[in-house]
Amino acid sequence: PSRAARLLEFMRTVGRLKEVKRTGWVRSGVHGAESVADHMYRMALMGFALGPTEGVDAGKCVKMALVHDLAESLIGDLVTEGESHRQDKITREEKIRRERQALHGICDALGGEVGEEIRSLWEEFEAGDTSEARHLRDLDKFEMVLQASEYEESQGLPLPDFFRTTEGKFGTPLFKALDAEV
């Protein structure tokens, strides 16, 4: 396929994220549940705003936030044991395997330096070994806690599982403090 065809296919793949609803919210009865794209967008802005104060590369955080759930455009938002009381029947390892396979397919189809950068950022996020990845992993969990708090307030819907699954899981002082505030 031509470069234009590959780019158009990538844009369509990304666009599917606007239609993929976050599984945990749907299964918990949230009305008008956010999409994966909604989640990634707020994460990207949070990474942009919070990165400099935490000594991490904000630009890299924004990019990582924008690609960390990209595979869900093909496989959906899978929930594993420990993430919620209502999970899909797969392990965390199987979820990562499926996501990696889908993500690599997206990157291979896109090709070029950008495809390689997306793959590299996703792998870095999954490994969680860099300061940016650790920051984003905490940010990912905190964005969910913040969203749960907003849904509880706006819909009067108790969502204790979303708070319980993150108890004691924040590794950075900023997100421990933000979690305490929520």
TrEMBL record:
It holds the Pfam family HD_3. One of its GO terms (biological process) is deoxyribonucleoside monophosphate catabolic process. Transmembrane segments: none annotated. Its cofactor is Mn(2+); Mg(2+); Co(2+). The keyword Metal-binding applies. Its EC number is 3.1.3.89. It catalyses: a 2'-deoxyribonucleoside 5'-phosphate + H2O = a 2'-deoxyribonucleoside + phosphate. It is an enzyme of class 3 (hydrolase). Signal peptide: none annotated. Keywords: Hydrolase, Magnesium, Metal-binding. GO terms for molecular function: 5'-deoxynucleotidase activity; metal ion binding. Catalyzes the dephosphorylation of the nucleoside 5'-monophosphates deoxyadenosine monophosphate (dAMP), deoxycytidine monophosphate (dCMP), deoxyguanosine monophosphate (dGMP) and deoxythymidine monophosphate (dTMP). This is 5'-deoxynucleotidase.
